[in-house]
């Protein structure tokens, strides 16, 4: 009964919003926000690194990248030390990709405990709060902001080495909310595809990150060519080299190219992380190489912070 009450309280807080403002209510909201921000700081102190996965536009495979990147870290010495926050409020799909849709958020006195997936990966998503697959989330910005605050303040992540945050495409409410609530974000990984259209939008994502002073870990080119499994001929379906070119033009690190592989889609639909089932594939090797590049980036970033603190 207590668990059900806590879950209902969480849903009630995120699904309601005051429509009448009074000085008293405004003060109550201010006090609530301050309390919530303190709780967020307390929760986030237990997480060493926070990394956002963003994209300028939809349809580039960002969530698939986020899920498999998290899994790559979990299998590389960070088992039970990785979490994924699915911050795509209207289109949550991380639980499906990681095969944890049958799990749920567990409520307790400290807050809500995330679902636990393969290799101890912790997952929180709007998907767990929707009654059916057909239920849409028809919310304006303030409600999305409130839910993100709730996820950050109420979810008991515990001690983690990495929290990957899968953000919806664009530079709207959710990405802005996350960046403002987590100013100590270690960096962002920007996902794109080789096409020129995607390149144009990537520039906005880079500018967005720089304006908010969030370090850019690098650009990853997804859907980079298709190799026929029969004749081994490679076809550049979405042109060639767009991600690498834009990274060079904008002086941003390039993290690699992930080719189009039908098995990635098949495994995502089955809820089986691709890199676990096909560890020797070209795509899996790119993910594992990304882990090394991100580790190096974080090491240099931490060293620079230490140097800056000594100068001050």
Short description:
With 312 residues, this protein is α/β, with parallel strands linked by helices. It contains 11 helices and 12 strands.
Pick out its properties.
alpha/beta; Rossmann fold; eight-stranded mixed β-sheet; two-stranded antiparallel sheet; 11 helices
Topology:
Elements lengths: L1 H14 L7 H22 L2 E8 L7 H13 L7 E5 L7 H4 L8 E3 L2 E3 L1 E2 L5 E4 L15 H14 L5 E7 L6 H9 L5 E6 L3 H16 L4 E6 L4 E2 L6 E2 L6 H8 L4 E4 L4 H9 L3 H4 L4 H30 L1
Helix pairs in contact: 1-5, 2-5, 3-11, 5-6
How would you describe this protein?
The chain is α/β, with parallel strands linked by helices. The chain has one domain (2-15, 35-311): P-loop containing nucleotide triphosphate hydrolases (Rossmann fold). It is built from eleven helices and twelve strands. The protein has helices spanning 2-15, 23-44, 62-74, 94-97, 141-154, 173-181, 196-211, 242-249, 262-270, 274-277, 282-311; strands at 47-54, 82-86, 106-108, 111-113, 115-116, 122-125, 160-166, 187-192, 216-221, 226-227, 234-235, 254-257. Strands 5-6-2-7-1-8-9-12 form an eight-stranded mixed sheet, with helices on both faces. The termini are far apart.
Shape: globular
* Distance from first to last alpha carbon: 53 Å
The tally of helices reads 11
- Provide the CATH top-level class: Alpha Beta
Q: Based on DSSP secondary structure assignment, what is the total number of beta strands?
A: 12
Estimated radius of gyration: 20 Å
What share of residues are in beta strands? 15-25%
Describe the main β-sheet briefly.
8 strands, mixed
Helix % is: 40-55%
Number of domains: 1
Order of helices and strands: HHEHEHEEEEHEHEHEEEHEHHH
């Amino acid at each position: 009964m207590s668990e059900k009450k806590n879950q209902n309280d969480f849903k009630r807080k995120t699904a309601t919003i005051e429509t009448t403002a009074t000085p008293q209510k405004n003060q109550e909201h201010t006090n609530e926000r301050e309390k919530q921000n303190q709780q967020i700081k307390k929760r986030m102190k237990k997480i060493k690194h926070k990394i956002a996965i963003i994209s300028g536009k939809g349809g580039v495979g960002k969530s698939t990248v986020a899920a498999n990147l998290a899994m790559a870290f979990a299998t590389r010495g960070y088992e039970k030390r990785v979490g994924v926050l699915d911050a795509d409020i209207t289109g949550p799909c991380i639980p499906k990709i990681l095969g944890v849709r049958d799990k749920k958020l567990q409520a307790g006195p400290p807050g809500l405990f995330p679902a636990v997936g393969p290799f101890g990966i912790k997952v929180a998503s709007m998907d767990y709060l929707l009654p059916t697959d057909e239920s849409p989330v028809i919310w304006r910005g303030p409600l999305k902001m409130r839910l993100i605050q709730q996820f950050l303040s109420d979810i008991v992540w515990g001690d983690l080495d990495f929290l990957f945050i899968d953000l919806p495409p664009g530079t709207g409410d959710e990405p802005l909310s996350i960046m403002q609530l987590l100013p100590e974000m270690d960096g962002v990984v920007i996902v794109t595809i080789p096409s020129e259209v995607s390149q144009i939008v990537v520039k906005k994502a880079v500018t967005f990150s720089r304006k908010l002073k969030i370090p850019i870990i690098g650009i990853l080119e997804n859907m980079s060519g298709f190799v026929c499994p029969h004749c081994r001929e490679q076809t550049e379906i979405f042109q060639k080299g767009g991600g690498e070119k834009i990274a060079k033009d904008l002086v941003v690190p390039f993290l690699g190219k992930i080719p189009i592989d039908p098995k990635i889609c098949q495994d995502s639909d089955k809820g089986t992380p691709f890199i676990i089932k096909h560890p020797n594939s070209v795509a899996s090797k790119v993910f594992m190489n990304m882990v090394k590049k991100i580790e190096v980036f974080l090491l240099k970033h931490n060293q620079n912070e230490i140097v800056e603190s000594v100068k001050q």
